[in-house]
């Protein structure tokens, strides 16, 4: 019969399988769950002070305390000698400790933010004690002629697992409940505005980078207004991305590309039922490695990894001269070697201009990255939303920079699209949004 500890651990192991499972559990443990708006509703039933990190830590502490008693009981001091009287690999204490640590590794991989929170809650202190004791046990095992291979392997496996999740760089006081809430993903229940019925309301979870912003390159750490507007526009115009190769520029948290990938994932699932094949895909790009890590996590969180991937693209590295056959250069995350990439049918971009130089570089990037017209096909199209020049320097010269290198540009105020409905949902969650902020929609054709 299972103990209370084993039952609690098994329940969590079965409940927390995916990144989305973990994020939803983090929300519920702080008293929130997803509703039909961009906010949360109360979920007091599962609310726990300290949230999910403290629940996981309590399991680790309980497993360690049992192990510690076992460890002390089998190490009998005789002067400087220590004699093992019980086999390590046969003990339920070691097995339970190994199981909890393996679960902690899994959770940290599924949700690195949770991994940091568990570390700050106190897991690093416990793990450091475990490592000291395991090192001592291994030394004892190595000096004993009675040690079996299975016993030695069990100790080494536990040491390896503890080392994998132990991180001395995780320092600081435990996060307060208020701080834990601020680190939860944003919840967007987005609705199309054309009411055609092709796409229904869809909920997206979008994590922001939890590091402190310290430079201009860190602007992608948080959600910006234009991304929400462009995402709802994409949901209202799925026919414009159906069957297309798509590139999101300066993606920040990646909402726009994830919305597009979500539609394509559903589209491809439906196509599988009819044996149709789609070549659609979404490449979500940014220049900041921390931002790209967050986008990668958000792709998993929204379960669109079959259609979406990431790449490290620098606007300032594109020549603006590759009209035919077209193409762009990018590297992998944290990579230094850039490789040429094929041109795409559609570019999506939101709030990618913060200064005049950005407008010039963005125009060159769009010029190169879109497929050129030819062989009876139209050239590629970029759909871009930016705040106006009052809030984003350089936006005012973007149309002329595009036109100067042969691109066609159509400019529309977002407030004039769909009767202004694109501005009526979820905007309060965006960084820097103020009532009356004017946003501009650009349609750029090659």
Walk me through the structure:
The chain is of the alpha/beta class. It has twelve helices and 15 strands. The chain has helices spanning 4-15, 19-29, 51-74, 92-110, 112-143, 149-165, 177-182, 225-236, 255-273, 289-301, 356-369, 398-404; strands at 32-34, 40-42, 75-78, 81-84, 186-190, 202-206, 245-249, 281-286, 308-312, 328-330, 339-341, 346-350, 381-387, 408-413, 439-445. The strands form five sheets. It has a seven-stranded mixed β-sheet with strand order 9-8-7-12-13-15-14, sandwiched between helices. A two-stranded antiparallel ribbon has the order 1-2. Helix 3 (51-74) runs antiparallel to helix 4, helix 8 packs parallel to helix 9 (255-273) and helix 11 packs across helix 12 (398-404). The protein is elongated and about 80 Å long. The protein starts with a helix and ends with a strand.
State the end-to-end CA separation. 69 Å
Structural class: alpha/beta
The residue fraction in helices comes out at: 40-55%
Order of helices and strands: HHEEHEEHHHHEEHEHEHEEEEHEHEE
Strand percent estimate: 15-25%
**Average pLDDT value?**
89
Order of strands across the widest beta sheet? 9-8-7-12-13-15-14
* Main sheet overview: 7 strands, mixed
- What is the overall shape? elongated
Compute the number of helices. 12
Q: Give me the count of strands.
A: 15
Radius of gyration: 26 Å
């Amino acid at each position: 019969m299972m103990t209370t500890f084993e039952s609690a651990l098994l329940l969590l192991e079965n409940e927390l399988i995916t990144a989305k499972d973990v994020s939803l559990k983090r929300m519920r443990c702080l008293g929130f769950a997803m509703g039909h708006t961009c906010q949360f509703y109360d979920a007091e039933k599962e609310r726990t002070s300290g949230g999910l990190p403290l629940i996981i830590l309590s399991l680790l502490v309980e497993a360690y305390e049992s192990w510690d008693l076992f460890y002390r009981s089998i190490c009998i001091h005789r002067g400087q000698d220590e004699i093992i009287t019980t086999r390590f690999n046969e003990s339920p204490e070691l097995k339970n400790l190994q199981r909890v640590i393996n679960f902690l590794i899994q959770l940290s991989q599924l949700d690195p933010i949770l991994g940091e929170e568990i570390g700050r809650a106190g897991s690093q202190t416990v793990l450091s004690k475990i490592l000291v004791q395991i090192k001592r046990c291994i030394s004892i095992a190595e000096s004993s002629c009675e040690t079996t291979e299975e016993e030695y392997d069990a100790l080494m496996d536990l040491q390896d697992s503890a080392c994998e999740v132990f991180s001395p760089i995780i320092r600081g006081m435990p996060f307060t409940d208020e701080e834990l809430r601020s680190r939860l993903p944003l919840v967007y229940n987005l609705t199309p505005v054309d009411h055609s019925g092709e796409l229904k309301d869809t909920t997206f979870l979008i994590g922001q980078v939890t590091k402190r912003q310290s430079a201009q390159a860190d602007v992608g750490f948080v959600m910006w207004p234009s991304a929400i507007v462009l995402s709802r526009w994409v949901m209202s115009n799925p026919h414009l991305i159906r069957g297309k190769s798509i590139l999101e520029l300066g993606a920040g948290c990646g909402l726009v590309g994830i919305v597009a990938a979500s539609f394509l994932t559903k589209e491809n699932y439906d196509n599988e039922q009819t044996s149709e094949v789609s070549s659609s895909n979404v490449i979500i790009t940014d220049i900041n490695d921390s931002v790209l890590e967050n986008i990668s996590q958000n792709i998993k969180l929204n379960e669109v990894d079959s259609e979406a991937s990431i790449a490290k693209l620098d606007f300032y590295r594109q020549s603006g001269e590759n009209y035919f056959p077209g193409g762009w250069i990018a590297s992998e995350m944290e990579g230094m070697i850039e490789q040429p990439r094929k041109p795409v049918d559609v570019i999506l971009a939101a709030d990618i201009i913060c200064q005049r130089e950005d407008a010039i570089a963005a125009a060159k990037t769009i010029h190169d990255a879109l497929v050129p017209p030819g062989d009876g096909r139209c050239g590629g199209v970029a759909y871009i939303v930016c705040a106006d020049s009052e809030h984003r320097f350089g936006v005012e010269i973007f149309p002329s920079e595009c036109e100067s290198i042969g691109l066609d540009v159509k400019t529309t105020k977002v407030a004039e699209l769909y009767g202004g409905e694109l501005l009526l949902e979820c905007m309060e969650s965006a960084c820097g949004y103020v009532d009356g902020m004017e946003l501009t929609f650009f349609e750029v054709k090659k």
